[in-house]
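Following up on my earlier thread - several people asked me to post the actual chain instead of describing it. Fair enough. Here it is, all 396 residues.
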Amino acid sequence: MSTMIAAVATDVGKVRDHNEDSHLVDSDHLVFIVADGMGGHAAGEVASDTAVRLAHESWTSLPMRRHVEAYAGNGDANARRALVHAVRQGVMNAHLNILAQAQADADKKGMGTTFTGFLVAGGDAVFAHAGDSRAYLVRDGVSMQLSEDHTLLSRLQAAGVDSAAAGGDPARWKGVLTNALGMGGDTRVATFFLPLVPGDRLVLCSDGVHEYFTEAEIGEIIDAAASPALAARKLVDLALDRGGEDNATAVVVKVLETGETHVPPEQRKSDEAAIAACPLFEYLTPTERLRALRITTQRDLKPGKPLPAVALGERVAYLVLEGTVTQPGRVLGAGDLVYPEALVQDTDMPDREMTAHAETALRLLTIRRDDFHEITEEESELGVKMYAVLAKLVVH
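Reply from S.P.:
Thanks for posting it. Predicted structure:
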Protein backbone atom coordinates (compact mmCIF):
# COMPACT_ATOMS: atom_id res chain seq x y z
CA MET A 1 0.00 0.00 0.00
CA SER A 2 1.18 3.50 -0.76
CA THR A 3 2.18 5.80 2.09
CA MET A 4 1.88 9.59 1.87
CA ILE A 5 2.04 12.71 3.98
CA ALA A 6 0.03 15.77 3.03
CA ALA A 7 -0.90 19.26 4.17
CA VAL A 8 -3.15 22.10 3.08
CA ALA A 9 -3.08 25.88 3.32
CA THR A 10 -5.98 28.18 2.42
CA ASP A 11 -6.76 31.89 2.67
CA VAL A 12 -9.68 34.12 1.75
CA GLY A 13 -7.31 36.51 -0.06
CA LYS A 14 -7.23 40.30 -0.05
CA VAL A 15 -10.39 41.04 -2.04
CA ARG A 16 -13.11 38.48 -1.27
CA ASP A 17 -15.12 38.62 1.95
CA HIS A 18 -15.56 34.86 2.25
CA ASN A 19 -13.74 31.73 1.13
CA GLU A 20 -15.53 29.67 -1.54
CA ASP A 21 -12.70 27.13 -1.84
CA SER A 22 -13.11 23.72 -0.24
CA HIS A 23 -10.50 21.03 0.23
CA LEU A 24 -9.96 17.54 1.60
CA VAL A 25 -6.86 15.80 2.90
CA ASP A 26 -7.51 12.19 3.88
CA SER A 27 -4.13 10.53 4.29
CA ASP A 28 -5.70 7.38 5.75
CA HIS A 29 -7.80 6.60 2.67
CA LEU A 30 -5.38 8.42 0.32
CA VAL A 31 -7.98 10.83 -1.05
CA PHE A 32 -7.11 14.47 -1.80
CA ILE A 33 -9.35 17.16 -3.34
CA VAL A 34 -9.51 20.89 -4.07
CA ALA A 35 -12.69 22.62 -5.29
CA ASP A 36 -13.26 26.31 -6.09
CA GLY A 37 -16.89 27.36 -5.83
CA MET A 38 -18.75 30.09 -7.67
CA GLY A 39 -22.21 31.62 -7.36
CA GLY A 40 -24.12 34.38 -5.63
CA HIS A 41 -24.12 34.95 -1.87
CA ALA A 42 -22.71 31.85 -0.16
CA ALA A 43 -23.72 29.51 -2.98
CA GLY A 44 -20.15 28.96 -4.13
CA GLU A 45 -19.23 27.63 -0.71
CA VAL A 46 -22.21 25.29 -0.85
CA ALA A 47 -21.25 23.97 -4.27
CA SER A 48 -17.58 23.34 -3.45
CA ASP A 49 -18.43 21.79 -0.07
CA THR A 50 -21.03 19.53 -1.71
CA ALA A 51 -18.54 18.38 -4.35
CA VAL A 52 -15.82 17.58 -1.83
CA ARG A 53 -18.14 15.91 0.67
CA LEU A 54 -20.02 13.70 -1.79
CA ALA A 55 -16.92 12.71 -3.76
CA HIS A 56 -15.16 11.79 -0.53
CA GLU A 57 -18.11 9.68 0.58
CA SER A 58 -18.14 7.86 -2.75
CA TRP A 59 -14.36 7.43 -2.99
CA THR A 60 -14.09 5.95 0.49
CA SER A 61 -17.18 3.73 0.24
CA LEU A 62 -17.01 -0.06 0.44
CA PRO A 63 -17.82 -0.54 -3.27
CA MET A 64 -14.98 1.84 -4.18
CA ARG A 65 -12.58 0.03 -1.88
CA ARG A 66 -13.44 -3.17 -3.76
CA HIS A 67 -12.72 -1.47 -7.10
CA VAL A 68 -9.39 -0.21 -5.77
CA GLU A 69 -8.41 -3.64 -4.44
CA ALA A 70 -9.40 -5.34 -7.71
CA TYR A 71 -7.31 -2.91 -9.72
CA ALA A 72 -4.33 -3.07 -7.38
CA GLY A 73 -4.57 -6.85 -7.32
CA ASN A 74 -4.43 -7.52 -11.06
CA GLY A 75 -4.87 -4.27 -12.97
CA ASP A 76 -6.66 -5.95 -15.88
CA ALA A 77 -8.73 -4.01 -18.38
CA ASN A 78 -12.06 -4.75 -16.71
CA ALA A 79 -10.81 -3.70 -13.27
CA ARG A 80 -9.33 -0.51 -14.73
CA ARG A 81 -12.55 0.42 -16.53
CA ALA A 82 -14.65 -0.30 -13.45
CA LEU A 83 -12.38 1.88 -11.30
CA VAL A 84 -12.47 4.79 -13.78
CA HIS A 85 -16.25 4.56 -14.00
CA ALA A 86 -16.63 4.55 -10.22
CA VAL A 87 -14.25 7.50 -9.75
CA ARG A 88 -16.05 9.55 -12.38
CA GLN A 89 -19.49 8.57 -11.14
CA GLY A 90 -18.68 9.78 -7.62
CA VAL A 91 -17.94 13.24 -9.01
CA MET A 92 -20.91 13.22 -11.40
CA ASN A 93 -23.23 12.41 -8.50
CA ALA A 94 -21.94 15.55 -6.78
CA HIS A 95 -22.58 17.49 -10.00
CA LEU A 96 -26.19 16.27 -10.13
CA ASN A 97 -26.70 17.14 -6.46
CA ILE A 98 -25.42 20.68 -7.06
CA LEU A 99 -27.81 21.06 -10.00
CA ALA A 100 -30.72 19.84 -7.85
CA GLN A 101 -29.91 22.29 -5.07
CA ALA A 102 -29.71 25.17 -7.55
CA GLN A 103 -33.08 24.28 -9.03
CA ALA A 104 -34.71 24.03 -5.60
CA ASP A 105 -33.39 27.32 -4.19
CA ALA A 106 -33.39 30.58 -6.16
CA ASP A 107 -30.50 31.93 -4.06
CA LYS A 108 -28.34 29.09 -5.36
CA LYS A 109 -29.21 29.48 -9.03
CA GLY A 110 -26.10 29.35 -11.19
CA MET A 111 -23.83 27.97 -8.48
CA GLY A 112 -21.07 25.60 -9.48
CA THR A 113 -17.56 24.52 -8.64
CA THR A 114 -14.32 23.33 -10.10
CA PHE A 115 -13.03 19.94 -8.96
CA THR A 116 -9.54 18.48 -8.98
CA GLY A 117 -8.74 15.44 -6.89
CA PHE A 118 -7.30 11.96 -6.81
CA LEU A 119 -7.39 8.70 -4.94
CA VAL A 120 -4.66 6.07 -4.86
CA ALA A 121 -5.05 2.52 -6.17
CA GLY A 122 -2.01 0.31 -5.70
CA GLY A 123 0.86 2.46 -6.93
CA ASP A 124 -1.23 4.72 -9.16
CA ALA A 125 -3.00 8.01 -8.53
CA VAL A 126 -6.39 8.13 -10.26
CA PHE A 127 -7.38 11.73 -11.01
CA ALA A 128 -10.74 13.35 -11.71
CA HIS A 129 -10.88 16.93 -12.96
CA ALA A 130 -13.36 19.58 -14.10
CA GLY A 131 -12.71 23.32 -14.32
CA ASP A 132 -9.58 25.39 -13.81
CA SER A 133 -8.22 24.25 -10.49
CA ARG A 134 -5.00 22.40 -11.21
CA ALA A 135 -2.92 19.34 -10.41
CA TYR A 136 0.87 19.38 -10.70
CA LEU A 137 3.51 16.68 -10.40
CA VAL A 138 6.99 17.55 -9.11
CA ARG A 139 9.39 14.71 -9.85
CA ASP A 140 13.19 14.70 -9.99
CA GLY A 141 13.23 18.48 -9.63
CA VAL A 142 10.91 19.03 -12.60
CA SER A 143 7.34 20.34 -12.34
CA MET A 144 4.60 19.38 -14.80
CA GLN A 145 0.98 20.51 -14.95
CA LEU A 146 -1.12 17.35 -15.06
CA SER A 147 -4.61 18.79 -15.55
CA GLU A 148 -5.96 20.84 -18.42
CA ASP A 149 -7.73 24.14 -17.73
CA HIS A 150 -11.33 23.95 -18.87
CA THR A 151 -11.46 27.63 -19.84
CA LEU A 152 -12.22 29.55 -23.00
CA LEU A 153 -8.62 30.76 -23.13
CA SER A 154 -7.35 27.19 -23.05
CA ARG A 155 -9.71 26.19 -25.87
CA LEU A 156 -8.66 29.15 -28.00
CA GLN A 157 -5.00 28.27 -27.50
CA ALA A 158 -5.62 24.60 -28.29
CA ALA A 159 -7.35 25.63 -31.52
CA GLY A 160 -4.40 27.84 -32.48
CA VAL A 161 -6.47 31.04 -32.18
CA ASP A 162 -4.71 34.25 -31.21
CA SER A 163 -6.75 35.22 -28.15
CA ALA A 164 -5.53 38.82 -28.34
CA ALA A 165 -6.75 39.08 -31.92
CA ALA A 166 -10.04 37.48 -30.86
CA GLY A 167 -10.80 40.56 -28.81
CA GLY A 168 -8.89 42.55 -26.25
CA ASP A 169 -6.79 41.30 -23.38
CA PRO A 170 -6.32 37.48 -23.40
CA ALA A 171 -6.79 37.54 -19.61
CA ARG A 172 -10.49 38.28 -20.16
CA TRP A 173 -10.92 34.71 -21.48
CA LYS A 174 -8.86 33.08 -18.73
CA GLY A 175 -11.61 33.05 -16.12
CA VAL A 176 -14.39 31.96 -18.48
CA LEU A 177 -15.02 28.33 -17.60
CA THR A 178 -16.19 25.93 -20.28
CA ASN A 179 -16.68 23.04 -17.87
CA ALA A 180 -17.35 22.66 -14.14
CA LEU A 181 -19.66 20.85 -11.76
CA GLY A 182 -23.11 22.42 -11.75
CA MET A 183 -22.71 23.77 -15.31
CA GLY A 184 -25.62 22.05 -17.02
CA GLY A 185 -26.09 18.53 -18.28
CA ASP A 186 -23.04 18.42 -20.54
CA THR A 187 -20.49 18.64 -17.75
CA ARG A 188 -17.62 16.20 -18.25
CA VAL A 189 -15.15 14.81 -15.74
CA ALA A 190 -11.70 14.12 -17.18
CA THR A 191 -9.94 11.12 -15.64
CA PHE A 192 -6.39 9.82 -15.92
CA PHE A 193 -3.90 7.57 -14.14
CA LEU A 194 -0.45 8.57 -12.90
CA PRO A 195 2.03 5.85 -11.87
CA LEU A 196 3.65 7.09 -8.67
CA VAL A 197 7.31 7.00 -7.65
CA PRO A 198 8.66 7.44 -4.09
CA GLY A 199 9.67 11.07 -3.67
CA ASP A 200 6.95 12.43 -5.97
CA ARG A 201 5.20 15.58 -4.78
CA LEU A 202 1.66 16.27 -6.01
CA VAL A 203 0.07 19.70 -5.81
CA LEU A 204 -3.65 20.50 -6.05
CA CYS A 205 -4.55 24.18 -6.05
CA SER A 206 -7.26 26.67 -6.93
CA ASP A 207 -6.67 29.37 -9.53
CA GLY A 208 -6.10 31.85 -6.69
CA VAL A 209 -2.74 30.11 -6.32
CA HIS A 210 -1.65 28.95 -9.77
CA GLU A 211 -2.38 32.22 -11.58
CA TYR A 212 0.60 33.77 -9.76
CA PHE A 213 3.18 31.11 -10.68
CA THR A 214 4.83 29.59 -13.70
CA GLU A 215 5.05 25.82 -13.92
CA ALA A 216 8.77 25.99 -13.16
CA GLU A 217 8.22 28.15 -10.07
CA ILE A 218 5.83 25.58 -8.62
CA GLY A 219 8.61 23.00 -8.80
CA GLU A 220 11.20 25.34 -7.29
CA ILE A 221 8.99 26.21 -4.34
CA ILE A 222 8.05 22.60 -3.66
CA ASP A 223 11.68 21.42 -3.93
CA ALA A 224 12.90 24.13 -1.56
CA ALA A 225 10.32 23.41 1.16
CA ALA A 226 11.22 20.99 3.94
CA SER A 227 7.70 19.54 4.25
CA PRO A 228 4.31 19.52 2.52
CA ALA A 229 2.99 21.90 5.21
CA LEU A 230 5.71 24.46 4.54
CA ALA A 231 5.31 24.06 0.78
CA ALA A 232 1.53 24.62 0.88
CA ARG A 233 1.94 27.64 3.15
CA LYS A 234 4.63 29.13 0.92
CA LEU A 235 2.45 28.82 -2.20
CA VAL A 236 -0.50 30.54 -0.55
CA ASP A 237 1.61 33.27 1.11
CA LEU A 238 3.36 34.12 -2.16
CA ALA A 239 0.03 34.19 -3.99
CA LEU A 240 -1.19 36.74 -1.44
CA ASP A 241 2.00 38.79 -1.77
CA ARG A 242 1.64 38.85 -5.55
CA GLY A 243 -1.95 40.07 -5.54
CA GLY A 244 -4.26 37.85 -3.52
CA GLU A 245 -7.25 38.77 -5.66
CA ASP A 246 -9.00 35.44 -5.14
CA ASN A 247 -9.36 32.70 -2.54
CA ALA A 248 -6.15 30.69 -2.45
CA THR A 249 -5.91 27.00 -1.57
CA ALA A 250 -3.05 24.53 -2.01
CA VAL A 251 -2.80 20.86 -1.05
CA VAL A 252 0.68 19.31 -1.22
CA VAL A 253 1.15 15.54 -1.05
CA LYS A 254 4.49 13.74 -0.73
CA VAL A 255 4.78 10.08 -1.76
CA LEU A 256 6.87 8.10 0.74
CA GLU A 257 6.18 4.56 -0.51
CA THR A 258 4.19 3.20 -3.41
CA GLY A 259 1.94 0.19 -3.66
CA GLU A 260 2.12 -2.96 -5.74
CA THR A 261 1.91 -1.35 -9.18
CA HIS A 262 5.20 0.53 -8.71
CA VAL A 263 7.30 0.72 -11.89
CA PRO A 264 11.13 0.94 -11.60
CA PRO A 265 12.46 4.39 -12.67
CA GLU A 266 14.48 2.95 -15.59
CA GLN A 267 11.46 1.14 -16.97
CA ARG A 268 9.28 4.20 -16.44
CA LYS A 269 11.66 6.36 -18.49
CA SER A 270 11.91 3.83 -21.33
CA ASP A 271 8.11 3.43 -21.37
CA GLU A 272 7.63 7.21 -21.49
CA ALA A 273 10.06 7.41 -24.42
CA ALA A 274 8.23 4.64 -26.31
CA ILE A 275 4.84 6.29 -25.72
CA ALA A 276 6.11 9.71 -26.79
CA ALA A 277 7.54 8.18 -29.98
CA CYS A 278 4.31 6.36 -30.89
CA PRO A 279 2.57 8.16 -33.81
CA LEU A 280 -0.77 7.92 -32.03
CA PHE A 281 0.50 9.98 -29.08
CA GLU A 282 3.31 11.93 -30.74
CA TYR A 283 1.31 15.12 -31.28
CA LEU A 284 -0.41 15.14 -27.90
CA THR A 285 0.72 17.37 -25.07
CA PRO A 286 1.98 15.60 -21.90
CA THR A 287 -1.35 16.25 -20.17
CA GLU A 288 -3.32 14.97 -23.17
CA ARG A 289 -1.12 11.87 -23.21
CA LEU A 290 -1.95 11.14 -19.58
CA ARG A 291 -5.66 11.37 -20.28
CA ALA A 292 -5.40 9.18 -23.36
CA LEU A 293 -3.34 6.53 -21.58
CA ARG A 294 -6.15 5.72 -19.19
CA ILE A 295 -7.67 3.50 -21.91
CA THR A 296 -4.55 1.34 -22.18
CA THR A 297 -3.70 -1.85 -20.33
CA GLN A 298 -0.23 -3.35 -20.07
CA ARG A 299 0.31 -6.90 -21.30
CA ASP A 300 3.36 -9.18 -21.47
CA LEU A 301 3.88 -11.73 -24.23
CA LYS A 302 6.39 -14.56 -24.59
CA PRO A 303 8.61 -15.00 -27.69
CA GLY A 304 6.89 -16.74 -30.59
CA LYS A 305 3.36 -15.95 -29.42
CA PRO A 306 0.91 -14.32 -31.87
CA LEU A 307 -0.61 -10.91 -31.15
CA PRO A 308 -4.35 -11.58 -31.40
CA ALA A 309 -6.26 -9.00 -33.43
CA VAL A 310 -9.25 -9.50 -31.14
CA ALA A 311 -8.93 -9.61 -27.34
CA LEU A 312 -11.41 -9.21 -24.51
CA GLY A 313 -14.18 -9.51 -27.08
CA GLU A 314 -13.07 -6.44 -29.05
CA ARG A 315 -10.65 -5.38 -31.80
CA VAL A 316 -7.37 -4.20 -30.32
CA ALA A 317 -4.23 -2.30 -31.29
CA TYR A 318 -0.91 -2.68 -29.49
CA LEU A 319 1.75 -0.13 -28.61
CA VAL A 320 5.15 -1.80 -28.24
CA LEU A 321 6.93 -0.69 -25.05
CA GLU A 322 9.79 -3.17 -25.15
CA GLY A 323 10.85 -5.98 -27.49
CA THR A 324 10.48 -6.80 -31.18
CA VAL A 325 7.38 -7.75 -33.18
CA THR A 326 7.48 -9.35 -36.63
CA GLN A 327 4.75 -9.04 -39.21
CA PRO A 328 5.16 -10.22 -42.81
CA GLY A 329 7.26 -7.60 -44.55
CA ARG A 330 8.25 -5.58 -41.50
CA VAL A 331 9.77 -5.56 -38.01
CA LEU A 332 8.32 -3.36 -35.26
CA GLY A 333 9.92 -2.19 -32.03
CA ALA A 334 9.46 0.21 -29.11
CA GLY A 335 7.10 3.05 -29.99
CA ASP A 336 5.47 1.27 -32.93
CA LEU A 337 1.73 0.67 -33.20
CA VAL A 338 0.53 -2.80 -34.24
CA TYR A 339 -2.88 -3.11 -35.96
CA PRO A 340 -3.74 0.64 -36.04
CA GLU A 341 -6.67 -0.25 -38.30
CA ALA A 342 -8.32 -1.93 -35.30
CA LEU A 343 -9.16 1.50 -33.89
CA VAL A 344 -11.02 2.68 -36.99
CA GLN A 345 -14.56 1.42 -37.42
CA ASP A 346 -15.40 -0.76 -40.45
CA THR A 347 -11.79 -1.29 -41.54
CA ASP A 348 -10.55 -4.77 -42.47
CA MET A 349 -8.38 -6.54 -39.92
CA PRO A 350 -5.31 -8.56 -40.97
CA ASP A 351 -5.94 -12.16 -41.98
CA ARG A 352 -4.12 -15.13 -40.47
CA GLU A 353 -1.13 -14.72 -42.81
CA MET A 354 -0.63 -11.10 -41.68
CA THR A 355 -0.82 -11.83 -37.96
CA ALA A 356 2.01 -10.26 -35.96
CA HIS A 357 4.20 -12.39 -33.65
CA ALA A 358 6.48 -11.69 -30.73
CA GLU A 359 10.05 -12.19 -31.90
CA THR A 360 11.33 -11.48 -28.37
CA ALA A 361 9.67 -11.14 -24.98
CA LEU A 362 7.27 -8.20 -25.21
CA ARG A 363 5.77 -5.57 -23.00
CA LEU A 364 2.78 -3.98 -24.71
CA LEU A 365 -0.01 -1.51 -24.12
CA THR A 366 -3.32 -2.80 -25.47
CA ILE A 367 -5.96 -0.36 -26.75
CA ARG A 368 -9.48 -1.70 -27.29
CA ARG A 369 -11.54 -0.20 -30.10
CA ASP A 370 -14.52 0.47 -27.77
CA ASP A 371 -12.34 2.28 -25.22
CA PHE A 372 -10.66 4.34 -27.93
CA HIS A 373 -14.05 5.32 -29.36
CA GLU A 374 -15.31 6.27 -25.90
CA ILE A 375 -12.44 8.63 -25.07
CA THR A 376 -12.46 10.30 -28.49
CA GLU A 377 -16.20 10.90 -28.09
CA GLU A 378 -15.72 12.34 -24.59
CA GLU A 379 -12.73 14.48 -25.51
CA SER A 380 -13.16 15.73 -29.05
CA GLU A 381 -9.82 17.60 -29.16
CA LEU A 382 -7.97 14.36 -28.42
CA GLY A 383 -10.11 12.58 -30.97
CA VAL A 384 -9.29 15.02 -33.77
CA LYS A 385 -5.54 14.66 -33.20
CA MET A 386 -5.51 10.87 -32.90
CA TYR A 387 -7.88 10.17 -35.80
CA ALA A 388 -5.76 12.40 -38.05
CA VAL A 389 -2.77 10.17 -37.30
CA LEU A 390 -4.76 6.97 -37.73
CA ALA A 391 -5.98 8.09 -41.13
CA LYS A 392 -2.38 8.35 -42.34
CA LEU A 393 -1.35 5.03 -40.74
CA VAL A 394 -4.26 3.07 -42.16
CA VAL A 395 -3.85 4.53 -45.67
CA HIS A 396 -0.18 3.57 -45.72
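The longest strand covers residues 248-257. That should answer part of your original question.
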